[in-house]
Amino acid sequence: MCTCLSSVQAGILNAVTSSRPDLAAMIGPLGRTLFALEAPILDAHGLAMWAYAVLLNLDDEPVRTQTALAEAIGADKTRIIKILDDLTARGLIERRPDPTDRRARLLSLTAEGRRLRDATQAAIQAAEEELLSRLTPAERETFLQALQKLL
Amino acid sequence: MCTCLSSVQAGILNAVTSSRPDLAAMIGPLGRTLFALEAPILDAHGLAMWAYAVLLNLDDEPVRTQTALAEAIGADKTRIIKILDDLTARGLIERRPDPTDRRARLLSLTAEGRRLRDATQAAIQAAEEELLSRLTPAERETFLQALQKLL
DNA sequence: TATTGTTATACTCTATAACTATA
DNA sequence: TATAGTTATAGAGTATAACAATA
Protein backbone atom coordinates (compact mmCIF):
# COMPACT_ATOMS: atom_id res chain seq x y z
CA MET A 1 0.00 0.00 0.00
CA CYS A 2 1.07 3.46 0.42
CA THR A 3 4.48 3.36 1.86
CA CYS A 4 4.76 7.01 1.50
CA LEU A 5 2.35 8.88 3.64
CA SER A 6 3.81 7.44 5.60
CA SER A 7 7.20 7.21 5.01
CA VAL A 8 7.93 10.76 4.77
CA GLN A 9 5.94 12.46 7.32
CA ALA A 10 5.99 9.53 9.59
CA GLY A 11 9.36 9.62 11.19
CA ILE A 12 8.86 12.14 13.93
CA LEU A 13 8.19 10.56 17.26
CA ASN A 14 7.76 11.43 20.87
CA ALA A 15 9.81 14.04 22.54
CA VAL A 16 10.41 13.36 26.17
CA THR A 17 11.43 16.92 26.63
CA SER A 18 8.39 19.10 26.31
CA SER A 19 5.02 19.15 27.94
CA ARG A 20 3.43 17.62 24.90
CA PRO A 21 4.84 15.65 21.99
CA ASP A 22 4.99 17.35 18.63
CA LEU A 23 1.69 17.05 16.86
CA ALA A 24 3.48 15.67 13.83
CA ALA A 25 5.20 13.15 16.09
CA MET A 26 1.81 11.68 16.86
CA ILE A 27 0.05 12.12 13.54
CA GLY A 28 2.90 10.55 11.62
CA PRO A 29 3.03 7.25 13.51
CA LEU A 30 -0.75 7.11 13.66
CA GLY A 31 -0.80 7.46 9.91
CA ARG A 32 1.61 4.60 9.59
CA THR A 33 -0.51 2.51 11.89
CA LEU A 34 -3.57 3.18 9.79
CA PHE A 35 -1.63 2.46 6.68
CA ALA A 36 -0.56 -0.91 8.00
CA LEU A 37 -4.12 -1.57 9.06
CA GLU A 38 -5.56 -0.82 5.66
CA ALA A 39 -2.94 -2.36 3.45
CA PRO A 40 -4.20 -5.93 3.72
CA ILE A 41 -7.81 -4.79 3.31
CA LEU A 42 -7.04 -2.83 0.17
CA ASP A 43 -5.02 -5.72 -1.10
CA ALA A 44 -7.87 -8.13 -0.49
CA HIS A 45 -10.12 -5.87 -2.54
CA GLY A 46 -7.60 -5.56 -5.32
CA LEU A 47 -7.06 -1.86 -4.87
CA ALA A 48 -3.85 0.08 -4.46
CA MET A 49 -3.98 3.03 -2.14
CA TRP A 50 -4.08 5.69 -4.80
CA ALA A 51 -6.73 3.75 -6.67
CA TYR A 52 -8.83 3.68 -3.53
CA ALA A 53 -8.25 7.41 -3.08
CA VAL A 54 -9.52 7.94 -6.61
CA LEU A 55 -12.64 5.90 -6.01
CA LEU A 56 -13.29 7.73 -2.75
CA ASN A 57 -13.17 11.08 -4.45
CA LEU A 58 -15.39 10.08 -7.32
CA ASP A 59 -19.02 10.28 -6.45
CA ASP A 60 -22.22 11.30 -8.11
CA GLU A 61 -20.70 14.36 -9.64
CA PRO A 62 -20.04 13.04 -13.15
CA VAL A 63 -17.78 15.92 -13.89
CA ARG A 64 -14.28 16.96 -12.99
CA THR A 65 -10.99 17.06 -14.75
CA GLN A 66 -8.14 14.66 -14.08
CA THR A 67 -5.92 17.44 -12.86
CA ALA A 68 -8.53 18.53 -10.34
CA LEU A 69 -8.94 14.96 -9.15
CA ALA A 70 -5.21 14.56 -8.76
CA GLU A 71 -5.02 17.75 -6.77
CA ALA A 72 -7.92 16.68 -4.59
CA ILE A 73 -6.15 13.56 -3.46
CA GLY A 74 -2.79 15.26 -3.10
CA ALA A 75 -1.20 13.60 -6.07
CA ASP A 76 0.49 14.77 -9.20
CA LYS A 77 -1.56 14.80 -12.38
CA THR A 78 0.99 12.57 -14.05
CA ARG A 79 0.82 10.13 -11.18
CA ILE A 80 -2.80 9.13 -11.51
CA ILE A 81 -2.86 8.41 -15.21
CA LYS A 82 -1.85 4.79 -15.04
CA ILE A 83 -4.16 4.37 -12.09
CA LEU A 84 -7.05 5.76 -14.13
CA ASP A 85 -6.06 3.55 -17.05
CA ASP A 86 -6.22 0.52 -14.82
CA LEU A 87 -9.49 1.47 -13.18
CA THR A 88 -11.00 2.11 -16.57
CA ALA A 89 -9.80 -1.21 -17.95
CA ARG A 90 -11.35 -2.94 -14.97
CA GLY A 91 -14.65 -1.20 -15.55
CA LEU A 92 -14.60 0.58 -12.22
CA ILE A 93 -14.63 4.09 -13.59
CA GLU A 94 -15.63 5.71 -16.84
CA ARG A 95 -13.58 8.28 -18.66
CA ARG A 96 -15.23 10.09 -21.55
CA PRO A 97 -14.33 13.32 -23.28
CA ASP A 98 -16.16 16.43 -22.18
CA PRO A 99 -18.48 17.50 -25.04
CA THR A 100 -17.96 21.16 -24.20
CA ASP A 101 -14.18 20.93 -24.04
CA ARG A 102 -12.74 17.97 -25.78
CA ARG A 103 -9.41 18.36 -24.04
CA ALA A 104 -10.94 17.35 -20.72
CA ARG A 105 -12.12 13.94 -19.58
CA LEU A 106 -15.22 13.50 -17.47
CA LEU A 107 -14.66 10.95 -14.76
CA SER A 108 -17.36 8.93 -13.13
CA LEU A 109 -17.85 5.78 -11.12
CA THR A 110 -19.46 2.78 -12.71
CA ALA A 111 -21.98 0.78 -10.72
CA GLU A 112 -19.33 -1.84 -10.11
CA GLY A 113 -16.83 0.79 -9.08
CA ARG A 114 -19.26 2.14 -6.55
CA ARG A 115 -19.91 -1.33 -5.22
CA LEU A 116 -16.23 -2.07 -4.80
CA ARG A 117 -15.57 1.31 -3.25
CA ASP A 118 -18.38 0.92 -0.73
CA ALA A 119 -17.39 -2.61 0.19
CA THR A 120 -13.79 -1.59 0.64
CA GLN A 121 -14.69 1.42 2.68
CA ALA A 122 -16.97 -0.62 4.90
CA ALA A 123 -14.14 -3.02 5.66
CA ILE A 124 -11.69 -0.21 6.29
CA GLN A 125 -13.99 1.69 8.56
CA ALA A 126 -14.75 -1.48 10.47
CA ALA A 127 -11.05 -1.92 11.11
CA GLU A 128 -10.77 1.71 12.10
CA GLU A 129 -13.65 1.31 14.49
CA GLU A 130 -11.68 -1.32 16.31
CA LEU A 131 -8.94 1.21 16.86
CA LEU A 132 -11.39 3.94 17.81
CA SER A 133 -12.92 1.65 20.39
CA ARG A 134 -10.06 2.64 22.65
CA LEU A 135 -11.84 5.96 23.05
CA THR A 136 -14.96 6.66 25.01
CA PRO A 137 -17.94 7.69 22.88
CA ALA A 138 -17.49 11.27 24.01
CA GLU A 139 -13.79 11.25 23.25
CA ARG A 140 -14.45 9.64 19.93
CA GLU A 141 -16.90 12.29 18.87
CA THR A 142 -14.70 15.16 19.97
CA PHE A 143 -11.68 13.58 18.34
CA LEU A 144 -13.37 13.21 14.97
CA GLN A 145 -14.83 16.69 15.15
CA ALA A 146 -11.47 18.15 16.03
CA LEU A 147 -9.83 16.33 13.15
CA GLN A 148 -12.25 17.87 10.71
CA LYS A 149 -11.73 21.30 12.21
CA LEU A 150 -8.00 20.96 11.70
CA LEU A 151 -8.41 20.15 8.03
CA MET B 1 11.37 17.98 4.12
CA CYS B 2 9.91 14.59 4.11
CA THR B 3 8.02 14.21 0.92
CA CYS B 4 7.26 10.69 1.57
CA LEU B 5 5.17 10.14 4.59
CA SER B 6 3.24 12.24 3.29
CA SER B 7 3.29 11.21 0.04
CA VAL B 8 2.44 7.67 0.40
CA GLN B 9 -0.09 7.34 3.06
CA ALA B 10 -1.45 10.73 2.42
CA GLY B 11 -3.62 10.27 -0.59
CA ILE B 12 -6.83 9.14 0.92
CA LEU B 13 -9.35 11.89 1.24
CA ASN B 14 -12.92 12.51 2.13
CA ALA B 15 -15.64 10.16 1.21
CA VAL B 16 -18.94 11.80 0.64
CA THR B 17 -20.63 8.50 0.94
CA SER B 18 -20.45 7.36 4.51
CA SER B 19 -21.42 8.92 7.78
CA ARG B 20 -17.84 9.74 8.57
CA PRO B 21 -14.77 10.07 6.39
CA ASP B 22 -12.16 7.36 6.65
CA LEU B 23 -9.85 8.03 9.54
CA ALA B 24 -6.91 7.69 7.21
CA ALA B 25 -8.56 10.17 4.86
CA MET B 26 -8.26 12.77 7.57
CA ILE B 27 -4.99 11.77 9.18
CA GLY B 28 -3.18 11.68 5.87
CA PRO B 29 -3.97 15.19 4.72
CA LEU B 30 -3.44 16.52 8.23
CA GLY B 31 -0.02 14.95 8.20
CA ARG B 32 0.74 16.65 4.93
CA THR B 33 -0.42 19.94 6.33
CA LEU B 34 1.86 19.54 9.32
CA PHE B 35 4.68 18.53 7.05
CA ALA B 36 4.27 21.66 4.98
CA LEU B 37 4.07 23.69 8.16
CA GLU B 38 7.28 22.29 9.56
CA ALA B 39 9.38 22.10 6.44
CA PRO B 40 10.43 25.77 6.45
CA ILE B 41 11.09 25.69 10.18
CA LEU B 42 13.29 22.63 9.94
CA ASP B 43 15.02 24.17 6.98
CA ALA B 44 15.69 27.36 8.88
CA HIS B 45 17.28 25.32 11.63
CA GLY B 46 19.37 23.33 9.21
CA LEU B 47 17.71 20.03 9.99
CA ALA B 48 16.19 17.48 7.66
CA MET B 49 13.13 15.71 8.94
CA TRP B 50 14.83 12.45 9.78
CA ALA B 51 17.64 14.32 11.49
CA TYR B 52 15.07 16.10 13.63
CA ALA B 53 13.41 12.79 14.39
CA VAL B 54 16.76 11.46 15.55
CA LEU B 55 17.36 14.43 17.83
CA LEU B 56 13.86 14.14 19.24
CA ASN B 57 14.40 10.53 20.18
CA LEU B 58 17.77 11.09 21.75
CA ASP B 59 17.47 12.31 25.26
CA ASP B 60 19.21 11.78 28.53
CA GLU B 61 19.48 8.08 28.04
CA PRO B 62 23.03 7.87 26.78
CA VAL B 63 22.48 4.36 25.58
CA ARG B 64 20.74 2.66 22.71
CA THR B 65 21.83 1.00 19.55
CA GLN B 66 21.46 2.47 16.10
CA THR B 67 19.08 -0.24 15.06
CA ALA B 68 16.83 0.48 18.02
CA LEU B 69 16.89 4.18 17.27
CA ALA B 70 16.01 3.55 13.64
CA GLU B 71 13.14 1.35 14.67
CA ALA B 72 11.92 3.93 17.16
CA ILE B 73 11.53 6.56 14.49
CA GLY B 74 10.10 4.17 11.96
CA ALA B 75 13.11 4.14 9.71
CA ASP B 76 15.37 1.49 8.31
CA LYS B 77 18.68 0.97 10.09
CA THR B 78 20.52 1.60 6.85
CA ARG B 79 18.65 4.80 6.34
CA ILE B 80 19.85 6.68 9.37
CA ILE B 81 23.55 6.03 8.98
CA LYS B 82 24.31 8.99 6.77
CA ILE B 83 22.09 11.09 8.98
CA LEU B 84 24.05 10.04 12.04
CA ASP B 85 27.30 10.67 10.19
CA ASP B 86 26.19 14.18 9.42
CA LEU B 87 24.89 14.92 12.91
CA THR B 88 28.14 13.62 14.36
CA ALA B 89 30.23 15.70 12.01
CA ARG B 90 28.25 18.77 13.05
CA GLY B 91 28.82 18.04 16.71
CA LEU B 92 25.15 17.59 17.45
CA ILE B 93 25.35 14.00 18.61
CA GLU B 94 28.05 11.74 19.93
CA ARG B 95 28.61 8.19 18.80
CA ARG B 96 31.04 6.09 20.81
CA PRO B 97 31.53 2.33 20.95
CA ASP B 98 29.82 0.52 23.79
CA PRO B 99 32.54 -0.73 26.17
CA THR B 100 30.51 -3.82 27.01
CA ASP B 101 29.75 -4.70 23.39
CA ARG B 102 32.05 -3.16 20.92
CA ARG B 103 29.77 -3.90 18.04
CA ALA B 104 27.25 -1.35 19.29
CA ARG B 105 27.48 2.42 19.30
CA LEU B 106 26.17 4.48 22.18
CA LEU B 107 24.35 7.52 20.93
CA SER B 108 23.89 10.70 22.88
CA LEU B 109 23.08 14.33 22.34
CA THR B 110 25.76 16.95 22.73
CA ALA B 111 24.94 20.17 24.53
CA GLU B 112 24.74 21.92 21.20
CA GLY B 113 22.54 19.17 19.82
CA ARG B 114 20.17 19.57 22.71
CA ARG B 115 20.10 23.32 22.22
CA LEU B 116 19.30 23.00 18.53
CA ARG B 117 16.69 20.35 19.16
CA ASP B 118 14.94 22.40 21.81
CA ALA B 119 14.99 25.58 19.74
CA THR B 120 13.63 23.74 16.73
CA GLN B 121 10.96 22.03 18.74
CA ALA B 122 9.88 25.29 20.31
CA ALA B 123 9.43 26.84 16.87
CA ILE B 124 7.56 23.83 15.58
CA GLN B 125 5.24 23.59 18.52
CA ALA B 126 4.54 27.30 18.27
CA ALA B 127 3.45 26.80 14.67
CA GLU B 128 1.38 23.82 15.71
CA GLU B 129 -0.27 25.88 18.43
CA GLU B 130 -1.52 28.24 15.79
CA LEU B 131 -3.26 25.34 14.11
CA LEU B 132 -4.56 23.98 17.39
CA SER B 133 -6.05 27.36 18.20
CA ARG B 134 -8.94 26.38 15.98
CA LEU B 135 -10.02 24.10 18.78
CA THR B 136 -11.56 25.09 22.08
CA PRO B 137 -9.38 24.35 25.11
CA ALA B 138 -11.59 21.40 25.98
CA GLU B 139 -11.47 20.05 22.43
CA ARG B 140 -7.75 20.55 22.32
CA GLU B 141 -7.16 18.57 25.47
CA THR B 142 -9.43 15.73 24.45
CA PHE B 143 -7.93 15.66 20.98
CA LEU B 144 -4.37 15.35 22.23
CA GLN B 145 -5.36 12.76 24.81
CA ALA B 146 -7.19 10.74 22.20
CA LEU B 147 -4.22 10.89 19.88
CA GLN B 148 -1.99 9.41 22.53
CA LYS B 149 -4.52 6.73 23.28
CA LEU B 150 -4.57 5.72 19.65
CA LEU B 151 -0.83 5.29 19.55
C1' DT C 1 26.04 -18.97 14.40
C1' DA C 2 24.00 -14.49 15.43
C1' DT C 3 24.18 -9.50 15.71
C1' DT C 4 25.87 -4.42 14.97
C1' DG C 5 27.11 -1.33 11.87
C1' DT C 6 28.20 -0.45 7.20
C1' DT C 7 28.29 -0.27 2.09
C1' DA C 8 26.60 -1.11 -2.49
C1' DT C 9 22.92 -2.28 -5.43
C1' DA C 10 18.43 -2.34 -7.16
C1' DC C 11 13.81 -0.90 -6.93
C1' DT C 12 9.95 2.17 -6.16
C1' DC C 13 7.98 6.45 -6.04
C1' DT C 14 7.76 11.06 -7.46
C1' DA C 15 8.59 15.20 -10.01
C1' DT C 16 10.24 17.63 -14.40
C1' DA C 17 10.13 18.44 -18.89
C1' DA C 18 8.53 17.74 -23.40
C1' DC C 19 4.89 16.35 -26.62
C1' DT C 20 -0.28 16.21 -28.67
C1' DA C 21 -4.61 17.87 -29.11
C1' DT C 22 -7.61 21.07 -28.31
C1' DA C 23 -9.01 25.85 -27.11
C1' DT D 1 -0.71 31.57 -26.19
C1' DA D 2 -2.67 28.59 -22.79
C1' DT D 3 -4.59 24.33 -20.97
C1' DA D 4 -5.84 18.93 -20.44
C1' DG D 5 -3.93 14.86 -20.94
C1' DT D 6 -0.06 11.96 -21.89
C1' DT D 7 4.66 10.07 -22.14
C1' DA D 8 9.55 9.64 -21.11
C1' DT D 9 13.27 10.83 -18.33
C1' DA D 10 15.72 11.80 -14.33
C1' DG D 11 15.94 12.17 -9.52
C1' DA D 12 15.00 11.19 -4.69
C1' DG D 13 13.85 7.93 -1.31
C1' DT D 14 13.76 3.37 0.23
C1' DA D 15 14.67 -1.44 0.83
C1' DT D 16 17.62 -5.73 -0.11
C1' DA D 17 21.55 -8.11 0.08
C1' DA D 18 26.22 -8.71 1.11
C1' DC D 19 30.25 -7.56 3.94
C1' DA D 20 33.40 -6.72 8.23
C1' DA D 21 33.78 -6.80 13.07
C1' DT D 22 32.41 -8.58 17.26
C1' DA D 23 29.91 -11.62 20.24
UniProtKB/TrEMBL annotation, chains A, B:
GO biological process: response to stress
Entry GO MF terms: DNA-binding transcription factor activity
InterPro entries: HTH_MarR-typ, MarR/SlyA-like, WH-like_DNA-bd_sf, WH_DNA-bd_sf
Pfam families attached to this UniProt entry: MarR_2
Top-rank taxon, per record: Bacteria
Signal peptide range in chain numbering: none
PROSITE patterns tied to this protein: HTH_MARR_2
Domain HTH marR-type, first and last residues per copy: 20-151
Record's protein name: MarR family transcriptional regulator
Organism per entry: Actinoplanes xinjiangensis
